[in-house]
Amino acid sequence: MGNNTNPSQWAALERLRFIERSAWWRGMVNRNDLQQVYGVSQAQASADLQKYLELNPTALTYSLKRKRYEGTPTMKCVLHQPQLEEALGQFLEPASPGGAGGWGGSLAGGALESPASEPTSHAGMRVAGVGLPQRTALPAVHRSIFLATLQELRVRIHYLSLTQRRPGWRWITPHAFAHDGYRWHVRAWCEENKAYRDFVLGRIKETEWPTLPAGRLEPDAEWHTWLTLDLMPNPALSKEQQEAVKADYDLKSGRMSLQVRQAMLEYTLAHLRLPAQNGKKPAPFLVLHDKEPEQNN
Fold this sequence. Notes:
With about 300 residues, the chain is α+β, with helices and mostly antiparallel strands.
């Protein structure tokens, strides 16, 4: 029975996408890559490459000298939309204190040849990210909050609040989750405040098991209201600086519109480094700890 590649099958489609990613980002791909990553036979790897050439005839050229297929300068992707993160995750392995890839590890491992034939063992030296503390909650907290959200139940939580004098127990009715770019919140009706609030999951010390059904609540207006942010380069910048901002944010017309939930507005503005709409300037949660002064003997 011959080796065929059927793009309608998930496994085959993934191999074809790997061919496309490799040719696009690394500039080359060969049978050994497919054998190493997917454990297929040499004949199957050849069939995959031929199938990709049928799907995208002008994407690859074969180099007799290097014995590999190379992506052409005019190559167009037909099986996926290229993203830089996928290239970093698959073909560069970011360094981290624990040695693990910061983008989820390398799919292809370190043995794949780099475009410039450089040792890939040094690949981790070429990608860096901001190392932030992990902000999460106990699995039991995640479970009970998710269950209460899914089944529309009230749940009693022990919350460590930054706006109240002391932590304590309260009843909430969660209805949605929100990520502010750093951590997860649960959006919930707070019976103590008689209003919808964001509760940081990492500050929920413990929960009781949710069993009580939620009563009828008014809709969360801030969650269901969408706002349009019209953004443009700061006129106070020089012309050259404004052009740099336009290029950075791909402002082809000099402006952009961003849709955001009202409940997520302040988080969005913080990421864009814009002043908060509520006029508040929150105090930092963390400060740098100065070294202890040396004691004189």
